Amino acid sequence: MLSRKLEFVSPEGLRIDGRRPNELRRIQARVGVFMQADGSAYIEQGNTKILATVYGPHEVSRKNKPLHDRAIINCEYRVASFATAERKKPVRTDKRALDLAAAVRGAFEGAVMTQLYPRSQIDIFLQVLQSDGGNRAVCINAATLALMDAGIAMKDFVCACSVGCIDDTPLLDINYIEDSAGGPDLTVAVLARSRKTVLVEMDSRLHIDRFDDVLRLAIDGCQAIHSILDSAMVERTKALLAGAASGADADL
Amino acid sequence: MMDVEPSSSSSSSAMQSSSDYSSAAIAGAAELFIAANGRHIVCPGDTITTETSFMRGHGTYFQQQSKDENEQPAQLTAAYAGIVERVNKLLVVRPLRTRYSGEVGDVVVGRVTGLGGKRWKLDINARLDGILLLSSVNLPGGVLRRRSAEDELMMRDHLTEGDVISAEVQSLFSDGTLSLHTRSLKYGKLHYGSFMSVPSALIKRCKNHFHDLPCGVTMILGLNGYIWLSETRATAQMQLNPNDEIEETSFQITSINARSNIARIRNCINALASRHMPIYDSTVVYAYDASLEFDVKALLQPEAIDKITAHARALADPGAM
């Protein structure tokens, strides 16, 4: 299927799924999907569908040691067995899952104001319901919304985006087919306002001359994602206020 | 396998020129300022003000906009998704839902999760477990009783893991841990009732958090979002001898009628919580009154929830009263 003949960008400048090289997939975000969790969010980015739930800050679980000056961030990542085209048996210790969870945790340690929550722990659970490329980036976007829904103090939105580079063309927000082409896959997470990067990861190699273009496209993509996440969060806040718009302006 | 899914026009146009995007962001910020009945909704990273005369309150921080610190003053930035509140020069961002952060004097309901070292640990829906010291409970024999080593060994007889109690916040430690006490007849172990939990922000701070509802249900609204519902019982004999700890462990049957009332109140509170409405005695009673036309189990249906919460909202609105 992935022969070299496969054309990733047509002569008309369209990708396999009809997008332009610098176009994102359609993003739909819903905040607050669970009552039970402190915070939750569900994001569909194209066909990648990810559910993030946040519990905490709460007392540190037994296996971790509390830090006296800040909170521990704990992140777990699971891919549903039905998430990929071929059904996968669940594996107990998936190294790639641990790796991804560590990357997400690292990204949020730079954004969450952990020093406000000494001796506590914040749990982020990421569940992939459908996997179509860019999981790492979509996980970060979903976790951002879930953390905000949980009322956890953050410096800024953490927005992430992946960029591939096939035949010297940088492709924004690559899907599974483009990812499987074997080209470089750069995932960047930035603090949206200050444009500080909190995560830059790339597998496979990319020529240094191209890197600048690819990175810039990724950061532009993050900015576009930020506006979508921001409006989702404002919608959620408005909805809660509208539900509470009874007599209780003073106490809510 | 692949569906063609064009991205939304706003995001693609934003991609094409960065100047477009930034102007859209500014317009968006202006809109946010007046959204929702003039309330200022913010998300983390949003600039609240660039004026330097304001004080930094909870949920805000100063952010340096540009590299050279002399040119641009630090901006007051939001750290929560919520609404901005102003008290004179103090700016605060309040998140709409968050963990319980206690204040001294709050009534809370908690569940014992562990004990040791002369203290019980309680889950009180806060950032850290609450602690109840052996010295802050009333033991049988009156207030002036000395606490001996035997008392320490007998702690599990008094309260054990899984017990639900009501208590009051006695003090706050520097790391945010709440220290509780039950040195009043109002507080102590809870029996024969139903426990439920709602977001703590919904519980309105009132003079009284113990309510005997007209339908024969006693409701304890913990400010931490934990609620205890039980049948109202006569408390006459309790007040006779206030120096003795009341350890009423004799088995008491809750009537089927009281059980169904407890279930009804519980469903009403869940309905209020699902519509993010404030929970205090009046709203619960209003919701209960409106719920009487439904079966208890019908109160789980969205139509019934909408109806009873709309009723409670109309009555609780001070403008309408």
From TrEMBL, chain A:
UniProt keyword annotations, A-Z: Cytoplasm, Exosome
Name used for this protein in its record: Exosome component 4
Transport as UniProt keyword: no
Domain (Exoribonuclease phosphorolytic): residue spans on this chain: 23-152, 156-220
Top-level lineage group: Eukaryota
Subcellular location field: Cytoplasm; Nucleus, Nucleolus
GO molecular function: RNA binding
Record family assignment: Belongs to the RNase PH family.
Keyword Acyltransferase on entry: no
GO biological process: nuclear mRNA surveillance; poly(A)-dependent snoRNA 3'-end processing; rRNA catabolic process; U4 snRNA 3'-end processing
Automatic annotation (TrEMBL), chain B:
Transmembrane annotation, as ranges: none
Keywords assigned by UniProt, alphabetized: Exonuclease, Exosome, Hydrolase, Nuclease, Nucleus, RNA-binding, rRNA processing
RNA-binding found in the keyword field: yes
Annotated GO biological process: CUT catabolic process; exonucleolytic trimming to generate mature 3'-end of 5.8S rRNA from tricistronic rRNA transcript (SSU-rRNA, 5.8S rRNA, LSU-rRNA); nuclear polyadenylation-dependent rRNA catabolic process; poly(A)-dependent snoRNA 3'-end processing; TRAMP-dependent tRNA surveillance pathway; U4 snRNA 3'-end processing
RRP4 S1 domain ranges (all copies): 99-171
Domain K Homology stretches: 193-232
Keyword Transcription attributed: no
Cellular component terms per the entry's GO annotation: cytoplasmic exosome (RNase complex); nuclear exosome (RNase complex)
Residues making up the signal peptide according to the UniProt record: none
Every Exosome complex component N-terminal domain range: 41-87
Location of this chain's protein in the cell: Nucleus
Gene Ontology molecular function, alphabetical: exonuclease activity; RNA binding
Pfam families for this protein: ECR1_N, KH_6, S1_RRP4
Membership in a protein family: Belongs to the RRP4 family.
Name the UniProt record assigns to this protein: Exosome complex exonuclease RRP4
Originating species: Capsaspora owczarzaki (strain ATCC 30864)
